[in-house]
Amino acid sequence: MDQVKIGRFIAEMRKQQNLTQREFANILNISDKTVSKWECGNGMSELSLMLPICEIFKINLNELFSGKKLTDTDYKQKAEENMMKLVKEAEKMKKNIVGDKILGQAANKNMNVVEAHKANTEFWDTIGSEFLGVTALPSWGGFLPSEDKLNLLEDLSDKSVLEIGCGNGHSLKYVADRGATDLWGLDISSNQIERTRDFLNSQGVIANLICSPMENDCGLPRNHFDLVYSVYGIGWTTDLDKTFKRIHLYLKDNGVFVFGWSHPIHKCVSVENGRLIFSNSYFNEEWYCADMNDKKIMLSNRMLSTYINALTENGFMIDNLIEQTDREEAIKADNDFGRKALMLPTAFVIKARKL
Questions:
Q1: Sheet strands (E) in 46-191
Q2: Is the dihedral of CA 41, 109, 346, 120 positive or negative?
Q3: H or E stretch covering 316
Q4: pLDDT tens digits for 164-219?
Q5: Could you tell me if 164 and 214 are in contact, meaning their C-beta atoms sit under 8 angstroms apart?
Q6: Where residue 105 falls among pLDDT bands split at 50, 70, 90?
């Protein structure tokens, strides 16, 4: 769309309504700097603001996108052109979110397993922990209630435990402190494996650590574990079905699988000028590649039903789905992420059991 032309049209219509930029901005609950940016052709309004703009100027969306008042003759042709432009513009404006970070330069692409493993391994070998931060038990992340409150892992005394995406080792120390005696950790990053090993050694904790993508056959024992868990790890798999198949093989009969990840609805909604704005389709499960400083990651947005159906199709029975917010923690955060968590779930945890 011609942002300069639309910007000039907005300025012209605003003046016809005898509104200053500040008065116009106040009606829309945005800053006058944002209005100035539009009118200079340096950006466009969010989709959620376009109808209110039209109502103020007594025009329709077709005229706003065309940057001029339309005659009946022009209307149909411009409507078709503007619809195609709007679809493209919506794709540009789509935001991808990991944790509390909005990713820049994210583009949909066909998933290549080798490429995804290479990009994600390099990310976690280098800047991953510093860029995204680290979530470890007892926290499940995303302002979910903690494990100390939920008690999803049950009694861990003398249990065999496997962590998928062991990160820095703090979650393994947590389960060891609660009685687990046979500890295993899996991670795609050799750097993370070393961090886990160094930390556990410093704590006098022994664990078997394996560096491998979770969906690959990496020699883990079958029918061995009482518990497999993952804190913000499962979403990095390139093949959810294959990953759940393998976890089912690793568990003993009636063994427990608990994992947490970013809630799909969280990835669809961003905070714009203090308001929640839908910036992505919930149903979009395409793979995307995103720039993270000088590194890249490859991820897919999956619906909650995708996780649930994959579990049931691979021999699991679901015990619990947790998606509530710990309101006290969200309020204490006093930031956009916390305020968002008061309105919608930003993470979820599923507890399932091997049939």
A1: 96-98, 101-108, 160-164, 182-187
A2: negative
A3: strand 316-322
A4: 999 999 999 999 999 999 999 999 999 999 999 999 999 999 999 999 999 999 99
A5: yes
A6: very low
Q: Residue 18 has which token pair?
A: 């005898």
| Total Cβ atoms within 10 A of residue 36 | 15
CB-based contact 326:145 (threshold 8 Å): yes
Residue 256, H or E segment? strand 251-262
**8-19 pLDDT tens trace:** 999 999 999 999
Long-range own/partner contacts, residues 309-312 (CB < 8 A, 24 or more apart): 310/240, 310/241, 310/244, 311/244, 311/257, 311/350, 311/352
Q: What is the pTM of this model?
A: 0.73
24, 46, 306, 325 from 313: Cα distances, Å? 54, 40, 10, 28
Cα–Cα distance between 214 and 200 in angstroms, integer?
Answer: 21
| Helix H or strand E segment including 275 | strand 275-278
Residue with tokens 């995307």: 288
Provide the pairing of β-strand 269-272 with 275-278: antiparallel
Q: Determine the length of the chain.
A: 355
Long-range contacts of 90-93 (CB under 8 A, 24+ apart): 90/47, 93/46, 93/47, 93/279
Residue-wise pLDDT for 77-88, tens only, equals 566 566 555 555
User: In angstroms, rounded to a whole number, what is the distance separating the alpha carbons of residues 68 and 275?
Assistant: 29
The identity of residue 156, as a single letter, is L
In degrees to the nearest 10, what's the CA dihedral of 187, 192, 196, 198? 140
- Encode pLDDT of 235-278 as tens digits: 999 999 999 999 999 999 999 999 999 999 998 888 777 788 88
**Structural contact between residues 119 and 297, judged by C-beta atoms closer than 8 angstroms:** yes
Q: Give bridge partners of residue 184 from the DSSP assignment.
A: 162, 208
Distance CA 235, CA 56 (A): 43
Q: How far apart are CA 268 and CA 252, in angstroms?
A: 37
Return the ∠ at Cα 260 (arms to 216 and 226), rounded to 5°.
Answer: 65
